[in-house]
Amino acid sequence: MMTLTNNILLISPIGxxxxxxTATDNKFQSDVANTxxxxxFKLFRNxxxxxxxxxxxFTPPDELTPDAVFPNNWFSTFPDGQFxxxxxxxxxxxxxxxxxxxSEIGKKYHSRTDLSFFENEMKYLEGTGSxxxxxxxxxxxxxxSERTDLRVIEAWKFLVDYKCLTFDCNDKNGSRVYHTNVVLxxxxxxxxxxxxxxxxxxxxxxxEELSISGRKLIEISIDQMNNFCGxxxxxxxxxxxxxxxxxxxxxxxxxSDQITQLEQxxxxxxxxxxxxxxxxxxxxxxxxxxxx
Length: 292
Hints:
Layout: E1 7-11, H1 37-50, E2 54-58, E3 75-77, E4 82-85, H2 91-94, H3 99-106, E5 111-114, H4 127-130, E6 132-134, E7 139-143, H5 150-160, E8 163-167, E9 184-186, E10 190-193, H6 200-212, E11 216-219, H7 222-226, E12 233-236, E13 242-247, H8 248-253, H9 256-263, E14 267-271, H10 274-280, H11 284-287, E15 289-290
Parallel strand pairs: 1-2, 4-5, 7-8, 10-11, 13-14
Antiparallel strand pairs: 1-15, 3-4, 6-7, 9-10, 12-13
């Protein structure tokens, strides 16, 4: 089994625009006009609520944080009551860690750990973008990149007493994939993974660890990864059913056989996020911060 939550945080895309700082290593981004992100966000939020997810929504008080819609990169919560704040690479993204947001979230958690000091050393670990976490087995997976540093991982491992398997992965052009959560998604029964982009030296250890957890691998291609098939998140609804949240773009790029496999154990919930994906370089999983 896998501990899932039906409580999440979304942050409204106030000030959402192409972020030149993050585009240096996020190859999923494109500089196009923002015309429909507000509607995409509202439809996504409403669809989650309709499917039995409890959604808390924060609204930034200004337009200074273009990527605020992706809160999973600056904090995460744990089923045992821990609340972690993470070091971010882009200077303008660090402003997403607003004191009033941290204060409100922190009320429900018994401990708070802030790793932001690593920013002074130019070392980063961007939350559940960098870490794909299996809390029940106390193991995380991390693709090393400019945003995911080994030294911060070691500090995190010491604090939480989790194992972390690191690996190297690259896109078709040989550039490092910027976040782990576009390569790998976990459900209770499946691991959606782009083994094609993972370096040969790391494929076996990652595959074996996922198999040990009892999960069946659903392998996606680099083209499917580029269409955010790896950027999904498993949640549970108020009836205790497992939902698999993804964008409509991801859903149509899975094969029918893959969708059939996923639907054996999950209700697949998709919503159009085309503009958020194109401009921001992130998708459904990036938009959701779990509140355990």
